[in-house]
Every structure is written in C-alpha cells, then in structure tokens.
Amino acid sequence: MTDSFSNLLTAYALTPPLVPFELTGGINNSIIGLHTGDGDFVLKTLTVHNDLAMLGYEHELLAWLATQPLSFAVPSPIPTTHGDTLLATPAGYQLLLPYVSGQLPDPTNMDHVEAIGSALAELHIALARYPTHARPGMAPFGVLEGIHPQLPDPYTFTPTQLNLPETVEYTVRFAWWRAELADLRTFIASDFTRLPRQVIHGDYGPSNTLYEHGRINAVLDFEFAGPDARAMDVANGLIFTMRLWANPTPLIAVAAFCRGYGRQQRLTSAEIAAIPWLMRLFNATASVWWLGRDLKDGQHEKGLEHVADMQQLATWLQQHQEELLETLNTALHSVQ
C-alpha cells in the first residue's frame, strides 16, 4: 500500500483493505474510486482551484445541499477525523466523497435530456433558499476580465498574446472574437443586469450528472457554483444537450430539456429572451478561462477549440434564433 493510501486510512479512519478503481470524468481535477472495508468512496485531487476561501464556500454549500430534500445526491465532502474537508498532501489538496452509482446520461436519448432539465429545476428551487453572498476568489459571469489572471483584458485579445503568428486565419478569428466580446459587453451592461439572480451550479450539463433507473441520480462538480443569473444554468445545459457539433436536430433536445425544467420551475419572459445571449456569454467565459490556462501552460490548442465553438454557436443562433425562442417559450411556459 502506498504512503498516500496509508495516510487516507489514518485521516479518515477507513477500514482496510483500500483498493482503487477507475472512474470517468475529472477534466479539471483528478478522481479515482476507492473500495474500502467501509464501502466505496471517491478520492478527488484538486489541480485547478486551491484557494481555501473559495473551496470553503463550495464545501459549505454542498454540506447544506446534502440536508435538503433532493431526489438526487450531491458530492458533499466527508470530514477527516479532525473535522476538515480538505487533506493537504504533496499531490495537492484531496477530499473524500461518497461514491454514487450511475452512468453519464446519454444526450442522444431525449428521456435522459428531459431528466437533466428536471434535475436542474429541482436544484434551482433548493438553491433559491441559499444566501447570495459572493463566492470568494471567483468572478461571476459577466466579469470577463476577472475570469483568468493571465487574461485581464480579453476584450482586446490578439494572436500575438497567445504566441501565435499574425496569419490571415488568426487575424480574422481574433477580429471576430473582439467583435463578439464587444456585443457581449453591451448585453452585460444592460439586459444581463436585470435578470433574476440566485446561487446557481455554474457548470451544469450532462457530464456533471449521473443517470440511473430513469432519473438523474447525482449532480456533481460545484466548483463554479455561486450567485449569478439563474437562467445561465439553463443556457449552459442547453449548449451541452443541443450538441451542435454532433446533433443535426438540436431543437428537439432544446424542447426535451426545457420540458423537464418547465415541469417544476418557470423562467420570466426576460430570462427566456436572454438565453441566446447567455449561451454566447457562457461560451465566451469558457474560452477566456481556457485561453488563460493555455497561456499559463504555454499552449493554445484548447482555447482555440473553444473560440471555434463560440463561432459555431453564434452562426447557428443567427440562423435559428427565432425557432429557438419559439421552442423555449412553448416548453418553459414563461411568467411575467
């Protein structure tokens, strides 16, 4: 048994043997499963967010959510024998979570997509009761200059800042980027400020849920949770259930997701009208984060992929925005 596993047995008073097993997921952080004499757990090693105040907010939120009457599990960290929810190790901060069975939902199955929307509505109803004080160390959506320290002024970003040549391709792409962010800046300063706010998940989609026995069994990864525009979670969920990069009929997925959400929760007419803009804002925020991470790591592939995703979505919205809004209004039953 490795020293790190021996430390886990001591820190959490686990009963041996301790046997690791593979889990899917973990884009920003690494995760492994652990069979123990006390049952199965998930060990998460943090590689991105290490700010203790930021993590403390997340863990307090998860502990509170675990007390709420939800139909699905949330990953509330298990305290060590000293009562801490983080364990400092040479590999970084680690935390132990209960293992929840289930599989990633299939975004091509509309029953699964509808369940994803329904679980978000249930989560929003619970989160509306949580205090809306700011999460330390994390910029909310709309503050693009605060998303990544490597990119303090994304509105004027150029290829040379990413160590790319000033080719025609890159010059045109980043000229589009600056125009898109200029449009988003106008939205952020106007309609966005008037949208209903509460604590939201911040990164909601199929990859952060588990599906089992006809329903969502767990909602995972609250590392971006905090107070923000409620409809941002809906916009994010739609991006990853529409799957423009692989789905020839994305509006069918929109209708399924929104049917699930609309059975339990309503959006205002202003929120529904803003969803195309919120989808663009979410993609821009993700692109800023990945471009900043690329700069830090001396790479550029992932950030450029996200910029391409932004362009694909913006082009689709130009062609189908009227149909999208009609589908949203029908499925979500807007209220004034």
Describe the structure.
With 336 residues, the protein is α+β, with helices and mostly antiparallel strands. It has two domains: 3-98, Phosphorylase Kinase, domain 1, CATH 3.30.200.20; 110-332, Alpha-Beta Complex (Aminoglycoside 3'-phosphotransferase, Chain: A, domain 2), CATH 3.90.1200. Helices cover 44% and strands 13% of the residues. It is built from eight helices and nine strands. It has helices spanning 3-11, 52-65, 110-127, 168-189, 231-242, 250-262, 269-297, 301-332, and strands at 19-21, 30-36, 39-45, 87-89, 92-98, 197-200, 209-212, 215-219, 226-229. It has a five-stranded antiparallel sheet, with no helix packed on it. A hairpin with a 2-residue loop joins strand 7 (209-212) and strand 8 (215-219). Helix 3 (110-127) packs across helix 6 (250-262), helix 5 (231-242) packs antiparallel against helix 6 and helix 7 (269-297) packs antiparallel against helix 8. The chain is globular and about 60 Å long. The termini are far apart. The mean pLDDT is 93.
